[in-house]
Amino acid sequence: MNFLEHIFENLRRRAEQPVLGEVHAGNITWMTGSELLALVERARDFLRRAGLHRGDRCALLAHNSVRWAAADLALMAEGIVVVPLYARQAPAELAAMMRDATPRLVLCGNPALAEAVATEWPEGPPRALLEEAFAGERLAAGPAQELPVARAETEPVTIIYTSGTSGEPKGVVLTVGNLNHVLRCTTGRLDLLMAGRSGSDRVFHYLPFCFAGSWVLLLTCLWRRSQLVMSTDLTRLAEEMQVARPDYLLNVPAVLERMRKGIEEQLAKRGGVTRKLFKGGCAAWFRRQEGQGNWADALRVALARPMFAAIRRKLGSNLVALICGSAPLARDTQLFFAMLGLPVLQVYGLTETTAICTMDHPSRVEPGFVGEAIPGIEMKLGEADEILVRGPNIFSGYWNRPAETAEVLRDGWFHTGDQGEVNQRGNWRVMGRVKNVLVLASGHNVPPEPLEEALLHSLEGAQHVVVVGHGRSYLAALISGRVTDAQVQAALERINPGLPHYKRIRAFHILPEPFSIESGLLTANGKIRRGAVAARLATQIEALYAARAASS
User: Fold this and answer.
1) Which CATH class is domain 253-317+321-434?
2) Fewer Cβ atoms within 10 Å of its own Cβ: the N or the C terminal residue of the chain?
């Protein structure tokens, strides 16, 4: 039984149980297993009437919803290759991806998206709204009896486009076999997390399903005995989370960083004894984690512990853990939530690895590391400490790009482009992207990500930090957000002394406006496009080095 057949069987078993929900106006609108299958059946009929056949491609351009999930299941059940696209992406970029994928149909979430596609790609394939695919459905209907079409393990299921941090996005082809393996691994790990709990686990979700990790979580919830609650308003995440009352949720580091800063800022505003107790207890707790605490620190932590517990309850009384992926999480932030009694489990992977290479084991979490390799795959370090992976989670190739595929799939190993290390316990740490390493004029190699992370965490109000200096005699930083020269200088005076001379940041430039997807400086999933930043801010970068040269 492949992953999709298993999901359909699970939905039949859970015919009368809620499986997917959406938060609207402070309440959850639920859909049962039988109602979801009825939607899928209606969508399958629509796809046939639209003339789509097994092996065709269909673009799915919409925000998260129960209907997105139903359309996805219907497309896969018909053997159609799904091309999920990010609804907030620039229309020109969307059109470029669709021209590359050549879908037979574009399913759009709303008329505005359909119009944007028509404007950018007037000669493109037919477009239809999701509501058309489900027109006339009867949600009270019994579960559909039709099974998904039979598919071999090597058959493609989806083409997911990479974020394009260093160039044009490429279509990653994932197969039935990829999903079979990864979903068994994610299910096994969540079973460990929820061991001893009866009933369905509740999951809150806000990340777009068009991203590989987000999609894998959706499918895992449909595979397991889970209830997944979707956000419908990203500006009200905290409120929606209180409504959803989840056991766990998938996050990206930026959101956890904002949560941490929000907690610290609220306590700072309260001032007085509360602020003093929290700051003292927090500093003492961190010292104890480094083995430097004394009896006084033990007392400070004990006095602050009721406050830590109250914050944790406010975040979510049912929360068992937070899950974090997309990029490595700062060790301090992971420790901060652990201090509150809320473990953060990290996941590492790329779209090309079906989103997963490593996952934290719930009882063996090591802050600063992204967990151990999932069962059935191998990982090792190659040249320049590049992480290499092989196993059934590795993609079959880039869509219509044999040269790029051959470049990353060599001798049976996938070259991730990530620089890492592994300890004796088998836990992996991701240091940064190999191609991002800055080579100074002195010959020293400097991964910029740890420095960016350290400076960002030291600057309240900073949104993004990009360290530059390739081919230069020293490093400089570009900082976006509401910070002052004095704040940056003070942060550098704290950070630089603990670094070797060649890793010290000696100049900086502040940009009042944060980077954004719309400006082209961030990818669709919020990662910095370093090449675009260097090109857009070339004048400011040159001025940084010219000014320092003139003053020396």
Assistant:
1) alpha beta
2) C
**Number of H-type helices and E-type strands within the chain:** 18, 26
The CA-CA-CA angle for residues 105, 77, 251, to 5°, reads 85
Supply the DSSP string of 418-439, one letter for each residue. Answer: EEEEE-TTSBEEEEEEGGG-EE
437-551: which CATH topology?
GMP Synthetase; Chain A, domain 3 (3.30.300)
Q: CA 280 from chain center: how many Å? A: 33
Fold of the CATH domain 3-247: Rossmann fold (3.40.50)
Range list for CATH 3.40.50.12780 in the chain = 3-247, 253-317+321-434
Residue 345 has pLDDT above 90, yes or no: yes
Sign (positive or negative) of CA dihedral 336, 340, 345, 349: negative
Length of the chain in terms of residues written: 552
Q: Where in the chain is the domain with CATH 3.30.300.30?
A: 437-551
Q: What does the angle CA 156 – CA 158 – CA 162 come to, to the nearest 5 degrees?
A: 120
- For 304-312, the CB contacts below 8 A with 24+ separation are 304/277, 304/278, 304/280, 305/281, 307/274, 307/277, 307/278, 307/281, 308/281, 308/339, 308/340, 308/341, 309/340, 309/341, 311/263, 311/340, 312/340, 312/341, 312/342
SS3 string of 468-531?
ECCCCCCEEEEEEECCCHHHHHHHHHHHHHHCCHHHCEEEEEEECCCCCCCCCCECCCCCECHH
SS3 content of the chain, % helix, strand, coil (to 5): 45, 20, 35
Give the C-alpha separation, 205 to 94, whole Å: 24
234, β-bridge pairs:
none
Write down the H helix ranges in 224-330: 237-244, 253-270, 272-289, 295-315
Amino acid (1-letter code) at residue 97: M
* Residues facing residue 202 across a β-bridge: 227
Name the helix (H) or strand (E) containing 464: strand 462-468
